[in-house]
Design brief:
With 386 residues, the chain is α+β, with helices and mostly antiparallel strands. Among the domains are: 50 residues, TSP-1 type 1 repeat (Single Sheet); 81 residues, Sandwich (Immunoglobulin-like); 115 residues, Immunoglobulin-like, CATH 2.60.40. Helix content is 21%, strand content 33%. It is built from 3 helices and 22 strands. The strands form 5 sheets. Strands 13, 14, 15, 16, 17, 18, 19, 20, 21 and 22 form a 10-stranded antiparallel β-sheet that branches. The radius of gyration is 49 Å and the shape is elongated.
């Protein structure tokens, strides 16, 4: 084998020597391939570094967007709170500007409860009687108010008593009721009342049978001694009689009949005028007037409207007073105040005035009472309005 000079790739790394081409390549190829491994590792490291940088940049942008959103939300909350504070301040300013010394007093908030009295005497000494007591709805300041203010679970007004069997039969009837009266209260109602009967047979007075126009009409249980016969036609006459009965079923004779005639009903109106006489009227002590209406059944008075009164003022046409109706649910004055002339009595403290208010329902009977911060006065005598 003769000596040859290694050309091409072999010539770059190996001096010419006496080697074959295969031996040259065996030596040169590893030398040529050696730099490839470090280059690949460097490329992988570069890729990892770029990926880490991309992730870091993404996290940074996310954090910046979150901080910007939180700052924007905080700014909106602060702006909304500032607007709410400004609105509240403006409302307070307008309310203060709209209140003067002549405005009626504000209605305080109250709580309500059922108040009960002790049970009365049993109606019968044996054989099963009843006891009654009064149940009223009262405000926390002691004022008696409409039952609608209290809860629906009203305490009972009656209970059974002396349920033992009577040892001897009662055959003695009660006395005949006296003092029967019949009075037309409106064009559709007649009020009937009588004096109490007595029973001496031992079973006790149970109640009364009421007859209208000679026919049995209804029972009224003792100790009640009156009824309101409503829903009658106008311009009609009706007669009434009453007989008492006891716990043993004995009945007294009927008393003498009494008659009354309902007047003709006037045309329907939207409002009514009510004349009030307020004795010992002291402007600083009277806040307003409660108007009460007799319920349809004729056994309870229901407050239908409250009216605030302003202190009297002297004008060229005499002494006047302002009044305004109040919403019973909210206790706030509704509508514009009205003015009415007042006249004083001989003592100077008795006041008579005529006020106008909306009438709920058909012609009815009304009572009025005054009130102030300390409570309510007794109600006036009933007035029939139509």
């Amino acid at each position: 084998m003769t000596g040859v000079t290694v050309r091409s790739g072999c010539g770059r790394y190996i001096r010419p020597m006496l080697l074959s081409r295969a031996a040259c390549l065996a030596i040169a190829l590893p030398l040529l391939a050696a730099p490839a491994a470090p280059a690949a590792a460097d490329a992988v490291d570069d890729a990892r570094a770029k990926a880490d940088q991309i992730r870091a940049d993404a996290h940074a942008r996310t954090d910046a967007l979150r901080a910007e959103a939180e700052a924007d939300a905080a700014a909106r909350r602060a702006e909304a709170q500032a607007q709410a504070d400004a609105t509240r301040a403006e409302a307070d300013r307008l309310r203060n500007e709209g209140t003067s010394a002549s405005d009626p007093p504000s209605t305080p908030s109250y709580s309500y409860r059922w108040a009960t009295s002790s049970y009365g005497t049993c109606s019968k000494t044996c054989g099963g009687g009843t006891q009654t007591r009064s149940v009223s709805c009262r405000r926390n300041d002691g004022l008696s108010v409409s039952t609608g203010f209290c809860s629906a679970s009203k305490p009972p007004t009656t209970r059974s008593c002396n349920t033992q069997i009577c040892s001897a039969g009662d055959r003695q009837p009660p006395s005949t009721p006296r003092g029967l009266t019949a009075t037309a209260a409106s064009c559709s109602e007649i009020d009937v009342s009588w004096d109490a009967a007595t029973d001496s047979g031992g079973s006790g007075l149970e109640g009364y049978d009421v007859y209208r126009d000679g026919n049995f009409y209804t029972k009224v249980m003792a100790p009640l001694r009156s009824l309101s016969d409503g829903n009658l036609p106008d311009s009609t006459t009706h007669s009434y009689q009453v007989a008492a009965f006891d716990g043993a079923g004995n009945r007294s004779p009927k008393n003498g009949a009494r008659s009354a005639t309902t007047p003709a009903c006037g045309p329907p109106v939207e409002t009514v005028m009510l004349t009030l006489r307020i004795p010992d009227y002291v402007p600083s002590a009277v806040a307003g007037v409660n108007v009460w209406r007799l319920d349809e059944g004729g056994f309870a008075w229901r407050r239908v409207q409250r009216i605030f009164l302003w202190p009297p003022q002297r004008t060229r046409r005499g002494e006047v007073i302002q009044y305004a109706p109040v919403d019973l649910d909210t206790g706030r004055v509704v509508g514009s105040p009205s003015t009415a002339s007042i006249s004083r009595g001989a003592t100077g403290n008795d006041v008579t005035l005529t006020i106008e208010f909306e009438r709920p329902g058909p012609p009815a009977r009304f009572k009025v009472s005054t009130f102030n911060a300390a409570g309510e006065s007794p109600r006036s005598r009933a007035s029939a309005l139509r």
